[in-house]
Amino acid sequence: MNKSNQRELRPSQHVRIKQPASPAEATLTSTIRPQQTNQRAANSTPAHPTRCNLVNMSFSLTRLVKNVLQVGPKDAWHQLLILGEVKAGTLIGTDQYGNRYYENREELFARERWVVPANKKFDPSEIPAGWHTWIHRIDARAPHEVTDIPNDLKWMAPHTRNASGSEANYKSFSTTEPKIEAWTPKAANRG
């Protein structure tokens, strides 16, 4: 092992050896990394919490102010209540339920398309199939731009939300007699 690698390493330091020159350096890399992750998991605090939080907060604060100025205070409040953040973008379209679909290509990948629901109790299964393909990048065209797929065939049912977990969910029933009879205890009078 080289003398330059013999210094004592603190757990908060990152050791990065691109290509180990000897087997001893490879062993050094493999023995230090598990200890670092175990100690960080036990402490669960970043190396510089104040600096990281201030950088993230200033970025999100400027982004928040910029987006509030673009969408207006009423829409910003609505987005904060429903989405948990304020986003500004181009309105692509609206579906038959009143949900509005937006796109902003300056956002992070996989966050550049979003839906602002019409009601507060929004379920993602309320997104129709055409908008689902657009928002998940299955098709680059919005549903109102698609002309090669017919939407009005008589065998197609209108879109409905998934009713699982609600009062309208499917309740199965059996047409056969039960094999086990339920026991209901009867209390005797105490007297």
UniProtKB/TrEMBL annotation:
**Family note:** Belongs to the complex I NDUFA12 subunit family.
Q: Which UniProt keywords apply?
A: Electron transport, Membrane, Mitochondrion, Mitochondrion inner membrane, Respiratory chain, Transport
Where in or outside the cell is it found?
Answer: Mitochondrion inner membrane
What is the role of the protein in this entry? Answer: Accessory subunit of the mitochondrial membrane respiratory chain NADH dehydrogenase (Complex I), that is believed not to be involved in catalysis. Complex I functions in the transfer of electrons from NADH to the respiratory chain. The immediate electron acceptor for the enzyme is believed to be ubiquinone.
Biological process GO terms, please? response to oxidative stress
Upper classification of the organism = Eukaryota, Fungi, Fungi incertae sedis, Blastocladiomycota, Blastocladiomycetes
Alphabetical GO CC annotations of the entry are: mitochondrial inner membrane; respiratory chain complex I
Question: What protein does this entry describe?
Answer: NADH dehydrogenase [ubiquinone] 1 alpha subcomplex subunit
Query: How is this protein situated with respect to the membrane?
Result: Peripheral membrane protein
Q: Biased-composition ranges for Polar residues?
A: 27-49
Q: Does the keyword Transport apply?
A: yes
- Asked if the record carries the keyword Zinc, the reply is no
Xref: InterPro entries: NDUFA12
Composition skew (Basic and acidic residues), residue ranges: 1-11
Q: Which organism is it from?
A: Allomyces macrogynus (strain ATCC 38327)
